Amino acid sequence: MKKSIIPITILACFSISSLLGCKAPANGPDRDYDGIINELDPAPDDNTYKVRLTQDGGYSQTMSFAMDYRNFLKEKYDPNLGLLGAYLINEFSATKPDFTPAYSPIADPASKVMAQVGCQDITYIDVASKYQSSSDDPYDVDNVIMGHNTFINENNTYQVFFVNNHSYVNGPSKGFMSDFDVGAETEAYQEFSPGEHSDWKDKNNHKGFDVTTNRILEAVLQYYDEHKIEDTKPIFFITGHSRGAAVANLMARSLIDKSYTVRAYAYNTPNNTAIIKSTVNDQYKTIFNILNDDDLISAVPTTEMGFHRFGQDVSLSVAKTYATQYKTFFGKEYHYCEDAVINALIDCLNSICTKDKACNRNTIYEYRDYHYDEDGTNLDAEYFDSQDSAEACRTDLLQQIHSYPSPMQNVFYVDEVKQDSSTSKWYVQYTLRPSILMPIIGQVMDLPEISLETILGLIESYKPFVTTLISDITTSLLVILFYGFDPDGIVDAHIQATSCFMAYMLAQANK
Ligand SMILES: [Ca+2]
Ligand SMILES: [Ca+2]
Known about the structure:
- The structure is a single chain.
- 35% of the residues lie in helices and 16% in strands.
- By secondary structure, the protein is α/β, with parallel strands linked by helices.
- It has two domains: 47-336 and 492-510, 3-Layer(aba) Sandwich (Rossmann fold); 348-485, no CATH class.
- The two termini are 26 Å apart.
């Protein structure tokens, strides 16, 4: 018979105590350091934490690891914390809190895990609704679940704050728009990107991730102020997956910069900063990015565009090292992209950079097609005899752009009216910015059925502006869409369950 490490009665105790507003003893003796004081611990000398990894109609697998709070003191990657973090992010993917008065956070899968390891004051913090009607970057939001617990080691009392990022709370399409909103400090970007970006504090960072991080960080520090206990040493344990990992990573970096002790376990972390790489080394060594080499997401935005991430990468290839174990673990084959395919996808994404300029975060907003000559003259442009006619055309183009739903205006930028030096004729120079293709993808994702025809149809609707660009855009779009919508295929390389599997294999290898 399988034995749960925490009996139901203890979970009920946590629920009732939180309802009554009282607290379980915060700092009772806990001689196995598993977060549960001796009196409540069914096995006070055993800190084995056994969890069951399940998915509807799919695998069901048991994992166990040591739940030992002293591991939070370690500066090196700790395989047990790696597993705890992986299990947390897996449970967060199933977390769907509501905000009715009867809501009990303990019922959430993620909160339940936190309760099982002794967390108190477990709170789901709804950061997103604060910004939902904001005109300033309304899509750059996530929520966060927090809790805290204390432990004593060698006469010091430590207080661990669990910070778990909950992504895509406004639905995937809006989250995706934020994911791909890399940001640039150029006029072109400012003109068409809605809002003042007042929460974009570090312009080196990916704009969508940085804004999201700063908004969450405010809530995290408020929670910390409300729950910190005098004479304890705080440790922030930060976790997140994918988009959540990008945010967890930036949040950890900010807290380290504020001199807090941080242990961040981020899974399948995308690149999130274009800061000079030599400045992101030693001080961020307690930020761990657990990466699957078979996964495209941790390679975007690409290094060729100037992006990387904070902290240390702990990476492995499931395909190369653990394909057999994967099949045993999940009872099915592992689907993934070969290196050659991943590299081709990265090349494809790099190809959205301007062909005539160095590829960086600014130039990805300045795509020009082959029909510009070396001087930047638009060879495909419609020519006008007078400047006024060209200006009228520009006004008309702008009107068309503004007739699109707000975020879709991002895709185009009408530069200016110019005069051709050889013919003295006038034309309108415009630019397409495929890096903000997310509005289109957002639209696609909201459709009941997705087919190649639908995608091509959507792209065709932009034809007043694009002719020769369509094939390039289509390729970029398909890269992303195939990646996101192949449920039995290459998604295996990225999902939370695979992160759990990887953390498990890392723990096994460390035994
Ligand atoms: Ca205990
Ligand atoms: Ca125990």
